[in-house]
TrEMBL record:
NCBIfam families: PRK00080.1, ruvB. This is Holliday junction branch migration complex subunit RuvB. Mg(2+) binds at residue 72. DNA binds at residues 297, 316, 321. GO terms for biological process: DNA recombination; DNA repair. Residues 57-190 form the AAA+ ATPase domain. Residues 188-258 are annotated as: Small ATPAse domain (RuvB-S). Residues 7-187 are annotated as: Large ATPase domain (RuvB-L). Residues 261-352 are annotated as: Head domain (RuvB-H). The gene is ruvB. The lineage of its organism: Bacteria, Bacillati, Actinomycetota, Actinomycetes, Kitasatosporales. Homohexamer. Forms an RuvA(8)-RuvB(12)-Holliday junction (HJ) complex. HJ DNA is sandwiched between 2 RuvA tetramers; dsDNA enters through RuvA and exits via RuvB. An RuvB hexamer assembles on each DNA strand where it exits the tetramer. Each RuvB hexamer is contacted by two RuvA subunits (via domain III) on 2 adjacent RuvB subunits; this complex drives branch migration. In the full resolvosome a probable DNA-RuvA(4)-RuvB(12)-RuvC(2) complex forms which resolves the HJ.
């Protein structure tokens, strides 16, 4: 398996081709259907209601958060709640200021412009966006060199919804031009259970509460992963069981896909096992750890570690990677005793 392409993993947070095809059908259509994110939902509800009452276009909204938490979904909900059309584009698609000018000048009044991956826009486009957001105006440059002139072009009021997985990468002048910023958090297991029940209903698959809880616990706080695991469990339930997703069906199915009870996959477990069994829990350098699992440094650092750190299973320290007590417990191993000879570290090294 090619781990460098993160999308090969069943627990990858980014969308794969199948997700893209299915997600449209599973997307909540209004704020009421949108599960969890209570704070963002309440705040956004106020922003949108107030704008509607005033008969005005809603303020620009920035949504930040990890992949698969619902940024695209929420942008579509914003448009739906405002009864406005939505235009979808992304930072990487806008390389020249002219690309952006063309989009902006064709917007209708009140339209929502969704700019995904806004942190990946080119600099000149970004600067044009500042003026468009603040003054609803762009300067179209005609001609080149000293003879070039800027022709101001009025824009109808619109709502920019920007999405980013890396809010920290946005230049402050851009961040400041959003009237509201919503930070999307990872979802609690109970919230993911609600996502799973809802999706199961839409996919017409029978699932009991324990089955939903089992999938939720392995979904890494991410609705996209919950929906993906649900689809794989559904396949298993259909082929190997009587079609109903129970706790046992979910657990067995996800074992087949090597997703453990806490949502770790094969790579995550390989990293943890190497850290515990070969290096007594660390500290060990990233490069050494990567060699031990036969992976690139970057793969370990960018693909496996973030979730392990978030789960409190692994810590990054100045001296190297260290396993936490929770890591030993998760793999059912006993940490080495400090001090004595023939310690657990030795046992870890040669024993297993
Ligand atoms: N709060 C939610 N309630 C129900 N389903 C959700 C929720 N958030 C996300 N989903 C589901 O998860 C899937 C992924 O969501 P979405 O595409 O909006 O994520 P994203 O944040 O835009 O991800 P990316 O950063 O990769 O673009 C969608 O199919 C949607 O159905
Ligand atoms: Mg998205």
């Amino acid at each position: 398996m090619n781990w460098d392409d993160d999308t090969d993993r069943i627990v990858a947070p980014a969308a794969d081709g199948e997700d893209t095809a299915v997600e449209a059908a599973l997307r909540p259509k209004d704020l009421g259907e949108f599960v969890g994110q209570e704070k963002v939902r309440q705040q956004l509800d106020l922003v949108l209601k107030a704008a509607r009452q005033r008969g005005a276009t809603a303020d620009h909204v920035l949504l930040s958060g990890a992949p698969g938490l619902g940024k695209t979904t929420l942008s579509m909900i914003i448009a739906a709640e405002m009864g406005a059309p939505i235009r979808i584009t992304s930072g990487p698609a806008i390389q020249h200021a002219g690309d952006l000018a063309a989009i902006l000048s064709s917007l209708q009044e009140g339209e929502v412009l969704f700019l995904d991956e806004i942190h990946r826009m080119s600099r000149p486009a970004e600067e044009m966006l500042y003026m468009a957001m603040e003054d609803f105006r762009v300067d179209v440059i005609v001609g080149k060199g000293p003879g070039a002139t800027a022709i101001p072009l009025e824009l109808p009021p619109f709502t920019l919804v920007g999405a980013t997985t890396r809010a920290g990468l946005l230049p402050p002048p851009l961040r400041d031009r959003f009237g509201f910023t919503g930070h999307m958090e990872f979802y609690a297991p109970e919230e993911l259970e609600r996502v799973i029940h809802r999706s199961a209903g839409l996919l017409d698959v029978e699932i009991d509460p324990a089955g939903a809880a089992e999938i939720a616990g392995r979904s890494r706080g991410t609705p996209r992963i919950a929906n993906r695991l649900l689809r794989r469990v559904r396949d298993y339930a259909q082929v190997r069981a009587d079609g109903v997703i129970t706790r046992e069906v979910a657990a067995t199915a996800l074992q087949v896909y090597e997703v453990d009870g806490r949502g770790l996959d094969r790579l995550d477990r390989a990293v943890l096992e190497a850290l515990l069994k070969l290096f007594g829990g660390g500290p060990v350098g990233l490069s050494t750890l990567a060699v031990a699992v036969g992976e690139e440094r970057e793969t370990v650092e960018e693909v496996a570690e973030p979730f392990l750190v978030r789960e409190g299973l692994l810590a990054r320290t100045p001296r190297g990677r260290v396993a936490t007590p929770a890591a030993w417990a998760h793999l059912g191993l006993v940490p080495p005793q400090h001090g004595g000879t023939g310690s657990g570290g030795q046992q870890g090294l040669f024993g297993v």
